[in-house]
């Protein structure tokens, strides 16, 4: 009986640890821009959330920069929650669009998502584009658990999830 309880507690503990941190490693020689990070619920389709990044130099939504040779991290200090609220991320994602159906959504601030709403969310996908030295777009893709590898004539990008640490990693390297 003690073994069963220990196993259940261990399993529950690992489940609540999942999705604490998302790393975007740009080991390529190209600048990358993140268009969206999207979540999915543990079960069902909704609610889901999509990042809304707003650069301080513009008046509306823009793309989140991940320069060549850098790592972008979103991390929640609360172990059981998806990292909607990541106070240490620079630049920060301050808003997320919450979808309750295919046609119904609204904007929620990251701080207001740092509650039980974040407990049931997991990484779904990331949309990004690759920039040439002059800033023009030379490629891009959506990476997810079902499309975990992207390759063009410049880079390779791949998605990994480590359930033992709760870490999602997106790694981008030169070809």
How would you summarize the topology of this molecule?
Elements: H1 2-17, E1 21-26, E2 31-41, E3 48-52, E4 64-66, E5 71-75, E6 95-101, E7 104-109, E8 121-131, E9 137-144, E10 149-151, E11 155-162, E12 167-174
Parallel strand pairs: 1-12
Antiparallel strand pairs: 1-5, 2-4, 2-8, 3-6, 6-7, 8-9, 10-11, 11-12
Walk me through this protein's architecture:
With 175 residues, the chain is mainly β. The protein contains one helix and twelve strands; from the N terminus they run αββββββββββββ. A hairpin with a 3-residue loop joins strand 10 and strand 11. The longest helix has 16 residues. The radius of gyration is 17 Å and the shape is globular.
The share of residues in helices is: under 10%
> Could you give a short account of the major beta sheet?
5 strands, mixed
For the largest sheet, list the strands in their spatial order.
Answer: 5-1-12-11-10
Please tell me what the overall shape is. Answer: globular
| Element-level helix/strand string | HEEEEEEEEEEEE
Query: What amount of the residues lies in strands?
Result: over 45%
Number of strands: 12
Query: Termini distance?
Result: 53 Å
Contiguous helical run count: 1
Low-pLDDT runs of 5+ residues are: 1-18
């Amino acid at each position: 009986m003690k073994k069963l309880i220990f196993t259940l507690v261990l399993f529950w503990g690992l489940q609540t640890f999942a999705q604490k941190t998302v790393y975007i490693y740009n080991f390529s020689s190209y600048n990358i821009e993140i268009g969206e990070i999207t979540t999915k619920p543990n079960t069902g389709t909704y609610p889901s959330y999509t990042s809304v990044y707003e650069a301080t130099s513009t008046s509306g939504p823009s793309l989140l920069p991940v320069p060549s040779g850098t790592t972008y991290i979103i991390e929640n200090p609360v172990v059981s929650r998806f990292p909607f609220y990541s106070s240490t991320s620079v630049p920060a994602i301050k808003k997320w669009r919450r979808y309750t159906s295919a046609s119904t959504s609204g904007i929620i601030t990251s701080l207001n998502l740092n509650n039980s709403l974040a407990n049931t969310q997991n990484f779904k996908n990331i949309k990004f584009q690759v920039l040439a030295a002059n800033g023009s777009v030379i490629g891009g893709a959506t990476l997810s658990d079902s499309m975990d590898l992207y390759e063009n004539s410049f880079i390779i990008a791949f998605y990994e999830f480590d359930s033992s640490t709760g870490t999602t990693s997106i790694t981008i390297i030169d070809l």
